[in-house]
Amino acid sequence: MRRSRSPVALVAAAVVLAACLGGEVTVDVGSDDRGVSGSVGSLDPDLDPDLVDDIAALLVELLADDVPGVVVSVGDLDDAHLVAHGLADLERGTPVRVDDVFRIASVTKPMVAAAVLSYVESGALGLDTPVASYLDAALVARLANAEVATVRQLLQMTSGIPDYLDTDAFWVAVEDDPSTFWTPVQVLGFASGSPADHAPGAAFTYSNSNDVLAQLLLEELGGEPLAEVLRRTVFDPAGMDGCSVETADTFPATTVRGYDLGARGDLVDVTASNDGVGLGDGGVVCDVESLARFLPALVAGEILGPEMLEAMLDSERSGADGSYGLGVDVDVDDEFGLVVGHDGASSGFQAMLRYAPDDGVIVALLTNSMAVDLDPDLPDELLDAWVAGR
Q1: What's 191's domain CATH number?
Q2: Cys-Cys with 290: which of 124, 195, 240, 363 at CB 3.0–4.6 Å?
C-alpha cells in the first residue's frame, strides 16, 4: 500500500538547500509519516542549481512511497554524487549510509554473464556448445531443454528452460522454512518436470534457472564457489571492493535490513527470508559506489576483450525486441546512444543500474524495500537530469 503525501510540498522541501557543509549541499526533506527524517543526500554546490533541483525532486518522488531507505549514485566515475536517505534498520532507527551494502538481486546476472564469457574467451567454454557438455548428466536430464540449450542461449534467455521461481512448490518451501540456504541443484529441482517454455532459440523468455545453471558452469570450470569466481573474474578487475556473493556463513548479516509489506499493510523485516540468496541469478551484494564501477569497467575492456564484449552487447539475436544481450539489458536511446544496465528485485530489496558510455554517465540505485513499485523510467530521468545540468 502506498502512502501519499503532497508532491508539491515534497518537491518544495526537497529543493531547499538547507546548508553548505564541507563543500557539499544538503537537500532537506523534513520528516515523513514513518518518522524518518534527514536529507536526501549530498550534492556538489558547483553543480547547476537546476540539476540539484531536478535530482532532488526525482528522488523525493521515490521517497513518497514506502521506502525505508535508498542510496543513489549519479554521475561519472570521477564526479559521482551520492545520495542516502532513510533507515537501514527500522527497529534500531539506524540511518542509511552511502557505504551500506544491499542485495542487488538480478543485477547479479550481467556479472555472472561476464564471468562465463571470460571462460569462453580463455577457450575453456564454447559459447554455442550445449551446457550439457559441461554439467552433470542426471541434472540436465531432469530439466526441459537443458540437454540441448547452448551457453549462449542460457545467457540471452532464449533456452526455454523453465523458471524455478515460477513454481508454487518453491515458494511453499520458502514459506515453510525461510532460513533454508538453497543450493543451485536444490532450486533447479523445483523446475524438474515442468514443460519447456519453447524450443531453444525460438523466443526470449526470462528464466532465473538459466543463471543458476550458469553458476554451476562457473563452479565446474573454476573449481571454486561462485563467490571466488566472481571475485577473481569481475570484482577484482573492476575495483568493486564493496561487492561480494552472500554465503551461508554471511547470510543474513551482510546487508542492511530489507522490508516488504505485511498482511496488515505494515513494513515487515524479510532480510532472513531466503528466496535464492547467494545464487547465480541474484546472489551478489554491493555498496552503491562499487556497483557503479561495474558497467564502466566492463565497457572499457577491463573484464572482457573486444570480441566477447561485442557478443555480450549484441541484442539482435535474443528476440527480446532487440533489448537483451548476454545477461544485460541493451538499449539504443535517441538522446544517449547506447545504454546498458539491469534491474533486480528480491525479498526486501530492489536495485537499478544504467550506464550511458557516450556520456560517461552512471546511475545506480539501491533500496531496502519491496513495498514500492519503482518507476522503470527513473534511471533514464536521472540520466536526463544529469546530462542536461552538467
Answers
A1: 3.40.710.10
A2: 240
Question: What letter would DSSP give residue 235?
Answer: I
Distance CA 344, CA 235 (A): 18
For 131, the domain range is 103-375
DSSP conformation letters of 160-217: -PPPGGG-HHHHHHHHH-TT----HHHHHHHHTTPPPSSSTTSS----HHHHHHHHHH
Grouping H, G, I as helix, E, B as strand and the rest as coil, residue 372 is coil
Whether 257 and 269 have beta carbons less than 8 Å apart is answered as yes
Residue count of the chain, please give it. Answer: 390
- Give bridge partners of residue 261 from the DSSP assignment: 267
Q: Residue 227: inside a domain, yes or no?
A: yes
Query: DSSP string of 254-265?
Result: TS---EEE-TTS
Question: Following DSSP, what letter does each residue of 96-115 receive, concatenated?
Answer: P-TT--EE-GGGHHHHHHHH
Instruction: Quote the pTM value.
Output: 0.87
Q: Is the peptide bond before 252 cis (omega within 30 degrees of 0)?
A: yes
Let me know if residue 39 belongs to a domain. Answer: no
For 93, list phi and psi in degrees, rounded to 5.
70, 30
Torsion, Cα 90 92 94 99, to 10 degrees, reads -90
Query: Is there a domain that residue 353 lies in?
Result: yes
pLDDT at 12: 27
Q: Is residue 72 part of a domain?
A: no
Edge-first strand order for the sheet with 102-103 is: 102-103, 284-286, 243-245
Number of domains in the chain: 1
Three-state DSSP class for residue 249: coil
Residue type, 387: V
Residue 317: pLDDT band by 50, 70, 90 thresholds? low
